[in-house]
Amino acid sequence: MFRYESLEDCPLDEDEDAFQGLGEEDEEIDQFNDDTFGSGAVDDDWQEAHERLAELEEKLPSAVNEQTGNGERDEMDLLGDHEENLAERLSKMVIENELEDPAIMRAVQTRPVLQPQPGSLNSSIWDGSEVLRRIRGPLLAQEMPTVSVLEYALPQRPPQGPEDDRDLSERALPRRSTSPVIGSPPVRAVPIGTPPKQVAVPSFNQQPVQSCSIDFPPPETSSWKGRPMWKVLCPKPVHVRPPVPPRFPAPYGERAPPDQLCGVPNSSLLGHPFPPSVPPVLSPLQRAQLLGGAQLQPGRMSPSQFARVPGFVGSPLAAMNPKLLQGRVRQMLPPAPGFRAFFSAPPPATPPPPQQHPPGPGPHLQNLRSQAPMFRPDTTHLHPQHRRLLHQRQQQSRNQHRNLNGAGDRGGHRSSHQDHIRKDPYANLMLQREKDWVSKIQMMQLQSTDPYLDDFYYQNYFEKLEKLSAAEEVQGDGPKKERTKLITPQVAKLEHTYKPVQFEGSLGKLTVSSVNNPRKMIDAVVTSRSEDDETKEKQVRDKRRKTLFIIEKTYSLLLDVEDYERRYLLSLEDERPALMDERKHKICCMYDNLRGKLPGQERPSDDHFVQIMCIRKGKRMVARILPFLSTEQAADILMTTARNLPFLIKKDAQDEVLPCLLSPFSLLLYHLPPVTVASLLQQLMSLPQGTAAPAPSNPHLSTVLQSKFGLSLLLVVLSRGEDLQSSDPASESAQSNPWTEVMFVATRELLRIPQTGLAKPISIPTNLVSLFSRYVDRQKLNLLETKLQKEEKGESMDILVQPCSE
Amino acid sequence: MNYMPGTASLIEDIDKKHLVLLRDGRTLIGFLRSIDQFANLVLHQTVERIHVGKKYGDIPRGIFVVRGENVVLLGEIDLEKESDTPLQQVSIEEILEEQRAEQQAKLEAEKLKVQALKDRGLSIPRADTLDEY
């Protein structure tokens, strides 16, 4: 009920124009209106059709009751009756008090000027029965034109009056998607899930060629109190599916609301390229609507309004028409049960469908394709736009069918796959145009001004691939493998600042909020707590948060700095100095962040740095930053690390990320002067300064030695020192070389240290033996070696003796 | 025609048989007939396949329209290799029965677990009270 009411409420301008266009040309003329300007006016004579309808309706009373329960037999009998029988039956079907139905009354009312009929409708609107009887009369007399394939998709319409026709046609949707157009076999049988006893069915089945019926459901709603089923015949050939009650949503829940249905044809005609109101998946009715002929430019229709009529699907239904006209009942039978079988037996999962199609439609296939162009469907009952779309679509489909049958994207290279594609009658439901449309949207999404920023990983990956292929090319001079690259359009992205609509001189603002103009939902006020309230834990937490924040800031700086090289290459000559300055500045900032610069202070405590180093991300970041720092800065970092190494090692126990620092450190070491190296060693081993007596135990050193990173770093430092020593002949002799002094102490410490679970170093420098041999005698050297050897459980000996690096 | 090399586009998958896994756990197998920019899918001759252990059952479903956001993953089915599977196909009734049994067993195990935790004074909040994401 609501549907009808809402349709009433819908602006029916177009409908009105259509039928009043003849008389009222001053009014807004709907140029798309088929009935006035298009084929509807020329080809279809809706007036006659309506007359026919009216007469049929008259004769349709009260036969409803008799037809309950006739079921399948009636379907078979579709074509068996002659017109006379029809008339009789129809007369039984119409109920007397039908015209108390507000719907009908309204429908009749709004169509005061219908057609110049004998005993015209104009006279008494309220004399409904009279009117309707007359309407139906002429209908019967006429020869039934064949119906288009698509109308099989459409449930019955009540042709009570033109407006009613239209309204109800739009509302009447089948319960299930039984559209014959796409993807399903033509609907000949009762669709799955249709309740077994449809009162509609009997009426339907009683129709001969020239009838179809629509029925209103039994009285369930208030407006239908006490009203039995009422059938209206319309001049359509058999619509095998039981007609669907056009207005009650109860059994047929999935129908689109009438306003949407009204909206759909309108929106498409208004030429929105991708009307948002048109859902990608259309209801069967909408699909059928769009299939209707319409004088639209193809570009105006959204690709989603496709509803291609595959020839295969179309033909069996079309086959029915000539046969119906000839009144051959039996021809109907094979398809019907065949398709019913199709529906009842679930299609197996393996392809392809055509192999399972019942034999019924098959034979018709060849004949009917040729007959397709000859059909002149009777679409009078349809909404004018609907009809227009229907026709246009039909024509298109005819063309396409000729061209595209069997063609289309063939991705498969295997023959069986190609066979499947060839035999697949449902292939290319998605037109090339639609595919292009989707890919166009996807390409649009890829547009960017800075692909490196927007699509970093993709760009990097493809660069790598290219390098690889270039490398391969160089090696093996095979033919150049052309790898198709996606060229994304580089479009300058304009910054659109959205300003919500404001009317001048109006009080207040619009309350509309959208994605661009979001409404402030919550007034969140930031309150900073006073220092006194904070407990120790909170302070710790805050400190950690601050550290994390600093890490993030520094990381952004790092990413920028790393990017400068690329930018440098892309930039113009005069921009380059500026870029360099920026880069330097950023590097300074990074260092300051790391060391915790505080204004007006000497280099502060290591605390800040240590905090950063306690966090896994911080360590990795430091490793990445080191190459950019100046030598002094980097040396400072290294010293601090060495100084605090045991603590860091302890904190790193879970992350185990410290080893990542080894390589930048080693790199750095090669640039350091000997003095620095010496002091570094001191720090690392926490060797006693000067000639102070060594402490009984050296926990610092033992911790360092027990960590993989620590030991490796130590070895690297030692190795570097040795290199320096050996490479610098001048220092060879000088005994007061700081390095030498340190080394003496170092070796003493090393000998002293208990051999408890020493770690396995990452790499062992090759010159350790020579290093130690300088400072210790043979015996101690052996001791050292065994110590080192013990670490790696036998590997180190080989490594020491036969220098090799991991 | 290679539509968009180097990207993941469904255009080349059209009219091929696919297996689609949905967010609610269902597995659909059907011919991909149409797509759109949201990766909404139209599947034709769809079959819902239920797997329990080594057995599976197919329920024919007809045409499916799947909203893109509900798809977890989808992949093309190689028609030649499709039948070579160690899994055994059974009837729908049987697989539904198996599924019911499996759900039952899972529920009971869950109950036992919760009970055991409760005995120890622990509790794990139920999934439906947590945020799904």
Automatic annotation (TrEMBL), chain A:
GO terms for biological process: deadenylation-dependent decapping of nuclear-transcribed mRNA; P-body assembly. GO terms for cellular component: nuclear speck; P-body; PML body. It comes from the Eukaryota. Keywords: Cytoplasm, Nucleus, Phosphoprotein, RNA-binding. Residues 392-405 have a biased composition (Low complexity). Residues 499-741 form the mRNA decay factor PAT1 domain. It holds the Pfam family PAT1. GO terms for molecular function: RNA binding. Residues 7-33 have a biased composition (Acidic residues). Residues 345-362 have a biased composition (Pro residues). The keyword NAD does not apply. Residues 1-42, 153-189, 336-369, 385-424 are annotated as: Disordered. The keyword Phosphoprotein applies. It is found in: Cytoplasm, P-body; Nucleus speckle; Nucleus, PML body. InterPro entries: Pat1-like (IPR039900), PAT1_dom (IPR019167). Its main location: cytoplasm. Residues 410-424 have a biased composition (Basic and acidic residues). Belongs to the PAT1 family. PANTHER family: PROTEIN PAT1 HOMOLOG 1, TOPOISOMERASE II-ASSOCIATED PROTEIN PAT1. This is Protein PAT1 homolog 1. The lineage of its organism: Eukaryota, Metazoa, Chordata, Craniata, Vertebrata. The gene is PATL1.
TrEMBL record, chain B:
InterPro entries: Lsm1 (IPR034104), LSM_dom_sf (IPR010920), PTHR15588 (IPR044642), Sm (IPR047575), Sm_dom_euk/arc (IPR001163). Belongs to the snRNP Sm proteins family. The keyword Coiled coil applies. Its main location: cytoplasm. Residues 93-120 form a coiled coil. GO terms for molecular function: mRNA binding. It is found in: Cytoplasm; Cytoplasm, P-body. Interacts with SLBP; interaction with SLBP occurs when histone mRNA is being rapidly degraded during the S phase. LSm subunits form a heteromer with a donut shape. Residues 5-80 form the Sm domain. Plays a role in the degradation of histone mRNAs, the only eukaryotic mRNAs that are not polyadenylated. Probably also part of an LSm subunits-containing complex involved in the general process of mRNA degradation. GO terms for biological process: deadenylation-dependent decapping of nuclear-transcribed mRNA; mRNA processing; RNA splicing. CDD domains: LSm1. This is U6 snRNA-associated Sm-like protein LSm1. One of its GO terms (cellular component) is P-body. Keywords: Coiled coil, Cytoplasm, mRNA processing, mRNA splicing, Phosphoprotein, Ribonucleoprotein, RNA-binding.
